[in-house]
Amino acid sequence: MAAPRSFTWTRRVFLTLLTGFVLLPVYVMVSSSLKPLEDVSSQFHWLPSNLTVRPYVDIWSTVPLAKYFVNSLIVAGAATVCSVVIAVFAAYAVSRYEFRGKRVFSVTVLSTQMFPGILFLLPLFLIYVNIGNATGIALFGSRGGLILTYLTFSLPFSIWMLIGYFDSVPRDLDEAALVDGCGPLRALFKVVVPAAVPGIVAVAVYAFMTAWGEVLFASVMTTDATRTLAVGLQGYSTQNDVYWNQIMAASLVVSVPVVAGFLLLQRYLVAGLTAGAVK
């Protein structure tokens, strides 16, 4: 049955307005990043009169953006790898085995998502400082401490999401692998993990995006040597001036890895997010 003509036109108008609403901030960022600072600080014009790529050159010298980029890449990459590896083992154990406290563990993992992250800021700060004073292990102000912090956010969601995905993988595959002589770990990596690639990719993208754009904990748990991009962008605002064109240019540059990764893994991400919805 064909949709009414009024519905078709209403959908087109709505989607056009929605697309314009989404792309408008992106256009403002791009156009502002191609203007001199004087033009950005004055009255806004939709069409730039003086185009320049100088802001994209100056962003690397105004603040140590390359160092912040490396810090963010190391922290986000390590947090992603740790989240995926731990979540795979934990989710597989919950999905395939029965043990005492299984339901409590699952509910606890899911309930941690109800608490705002700011509640953990002061406790983690005190824990890191006390561990450093007692053992000499410098967690506060280090990349390792920031990685552990991000695991407290990404790991519970990753485990909960992979549990649902592993539940959708038929247990007959595991049993067939065990009959063929595979052990539990070999069955996991040879059979279950290849079948769960979309869910694992979705978890990896979520963990990476969470660590890449996090600001609150990175602003407290880092020093000048370990500062990440999300916090380092504040360096373009000084006491004398705000380099708006460089802020826009840097924001576009730091968003490239996330956008590129999302576009490349979009097919797996959509499949992973919808996995286990119908059983």
UniProtKB/TrEMBL annotation:
One Pfam family recorded for the sequence: BPD_transp_1
Family: Belongs to the binding-protein-dependent transport system permease family.
Swiss-Prot/TrEMBL keywords: Cell membrane, Membrane, Transmembrane, Transmembrane helix, Transport
Cellular localisation: Cell membrane
Protein name: Carbohydrate ABC transporter permease
Residue ranges crossing the lipid bilayer per the database entry: 12-30, 68-92, 104-127, 147-166, 187-209, 243-265
Keyword flag Signal: no
Organism annotation: Streptomyces violaceorubidus
PROSITE patterns per UniProt: ABC_TM1
CDD domains hit by this protein: TM_PBP2
Membrane topology note: Multi-pass membrane protein
Segments forming domain ABC transmembrane type-1: 69-265
PANTHER family: INNER MEMBRANE ABC TRANSPORTER PERMEASE PROTEIN YCJP, MALTOSE TRANSPORT SYSTEM PERMEASE-RELATED
InterPro entries referenced in this protein's UniProt entry, alphabetically: BP-dep_ABC_trans_perm, MetI-like, MetI-like_sf
